[in-house]
Design a protein that fits this description.
By secondary structure, the protein is mostly helical. Helix content is 76%, strand content 0%. The chain is built from eight helices and no strands. This is Ferric reductase like protein.
């Protein structure tokens, strides 16, 4: 994934985040709403923008990728706490087995997000191979994103209408970023493999070097 391509994806996520904020804050749903509901909505919009930006920070910006992941988790936490403060009974029911599907999607997304962040922080200690780590870390992140944005789309609130367009676009951007990162890694490995085979065939590779002679 080229640097310019990554920058474009990251900036697009930022633009979508700003658009989501404009849609939410100008919605009649938040007109005269309690402050905690406004806080819950704003943090949710920012979290979606962070999820859309994450895949575009994988290569070359690991610290930013980690910081964004932690920020997204914190934003989701504030979002949930604000909902509990707003209506404890409704929030607890939503998180129960009898709650609506969209609430279960949000709960599973939150659990997966915690797992993704913990995997990222413990990567060196785990000692897993690169492909194994990327499969689990990236796969869980993708599932958390799809479920989280799906929850937002299904929830009636300040992000209806154009807000739904912003949410879906953010989800598509996140999936595209993840696919581009995986595809780029695969292309890089194939390129290195071809170069190594070409070097061996031409007699310049490591395999063609004569064995060292032992001193007599």
């Amino acid at each position: 994934m080229r640097a310019g391509f990554r920058t474009t994806g990251f900036l697009t996520a930022g633009v979508l985040g700003l658009a989501g904020l404009v849609v939410a804050l100008t919605s009649s749903h938040l007109a005269g709403a309690p402050l905690v509901l406004v806080v819950s909505t704003v943090t949710a919009v920012l979290a979606v923008a962070g999820l859309a930006a994450q895949p575009w920070l994988v290569r070359g910006r690991v610290r930013a990728h980690t910081a964004t992941g932690l920020a997204v988790l914190a934003l989701v936490g504030v979002h949930v706490v604000a909902l509990v403060v707003l209506s404890p009974d409704d929030a607890l029911f939503a998180m129960s087995p009898d709650g609506p599907t969209r609430a279960r999607m949000a709960l599973i997304s939150l659990v997966l997000l915690v797992v993704v962040v913990l995997l990222g922080l413990a990567r060196r200690r785990l000692g897993w191979s690169g492909p194994t780590f990327r499969l689990l870390h990236g796969g869980f992140a993708l599932l958390a994103t799809v479920l989280g944005i799906g929850h937002a789309v299904l929830t009636d609130g300040a992000l209806e209408g154009w807000g739904t367009v912003v949410l879906v676009a953010s989800g598509v951007l996140s999936v595209a970023g993840g696919a581009a990162a995986v595809g780029r890694r695969g292309l890089g490995r194939r390129t290195l493999s071809r170069r190594a085979r070409a070097a061996r065939a031409s007699g310049t590779g490591p395999a063609s070097a004569p064995p060292p002679t032992r001193p007599r």
